[in-house]
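Shift notes (night). Ran Anticodon-binding domain of a subclass of class I aminoacyl-tRNA synthetase while the centrifuge was going.
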Amino acid sequence: ADSLRLYLINSPVVRAESLRFKEEGVKGISKDVLNPWFNAFKFFASQVEIYEQENGVKFQCDESVYSDNLMDRWILAATQTLIETVRTEMKNYKLYQVVPPLVKFIDQLTNWYVRFNRQRLKGVEDVEGIEVEGGLTDTATTLNTNSNSNSTSITNSTSNSTFHALNTLCLVLHSLNLIMASFTPFITEFMFQHLKKYLNLNQESIHFLLIPKPNSNYLNPVIERRVSLMQSVIEMGRNIREKNLISLRYPINSIIICSDNSEILNDLKHLQGYIRSELNCKEIIYSTRPEDYNIEIKAIPNYKILGQRLKQDLKIVKDELEKISSADWKLFLENKKIQIKNHLLTDQDIQVFKYQEKPFEGFDIQFDNNLALLLNTTITPSQKSEGLARDIINLFQRLRKTANLVQTDIVNMQVKILSDPSNSIATAINSHKHLFDKALKGSLSIVDAIPPNHLIKQSYTDPNIELALFK
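Came back to this:
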């Protein structure tokens, strides 16, 4: 029912236009919106349960306390932007413009925030080297508002990183429920009934609550800009890896982030820990000299459009365009406009883009606006070995899931190598014990034969091994 409601709200019907109903559209809403959203809620609920078991306390969400972790601050800021957008569109009776920003936000929540903070939410160490506002440590910030004053004071206190992440996710899920209650009444009611015990709410139904207003304490356009840039870099890196058939489990030596704009590079440095972790690279190099990597700028005017508008001035403008320097074209890429004589030309009139005149040895490249990313595509034997170790870790994690084990279950693991002429499997396991210890709970050993009292056993062909778990 919720999928159908959201499908119709996003359809031409609300614009008084004809609709050719498609069942695939309703399924698409379930797949792209409701399922990921509900999965984020289920993940939160499961991690709260583990948090309470491990810490011996009841989790209680506190709106006055939030983390200085940059990704926490970002998702809270993005939530306020969504609230403002939905309120504006509803006020203007443009319900059909609610779903697109909602789909984008669900993607931000599940594929970026939850994915990047999965370890924190599970109570595992945060990604190393990630800067937060005010330093490199995760601290709580309490907003104490004086009722006799309009000012807000911020008090720092130490707290648990996992609590901060869970607290942030709880606030975001609750805000999302309030925003969407009128559009998806059933799923929001279900989630509200499970979330309200963490929020000290006494209302019998979410439909007794009002749509929230944006909280100015959480607004932060700087962090939103930085994360948007980080996402561009990571997506370019993923594309290059996919193009060159390099799995994300295989580390790469370096990436080079190139931009004429030093402010962009400074923004990205605040999130380099996430970039390094997500792209699995050892080093990030920043450069404001694209020419060092054979990157040039090319401009192609649309003379068909310009001719219709400029008429007899076209030749004058054409001659002037040929005199434009690379520095001016760089400004055009940022400002999307340029003044030629008495005519203002925009990116609708001229297509300006960067390209690589010749390949930079050992690297592949992708462009996105004023950013270029070069990724080292050379994989060394040691990197192959680490990638193989991560592949085996992934197989063990899947085996744990098949055995219905939970995060806190500690089991012993055994590997039987079925075929390994080059001894690469044994080398990968023995050389990367620290990776296995960090990712898996329990002891790992290589054996000649697996005993029959195993909890679960599975054979694989690539790599050619047999894995088993024991209680």
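The radius of gyration is 27 Å. Residues 126-159 have pLDDT under 50 and may be disordered.
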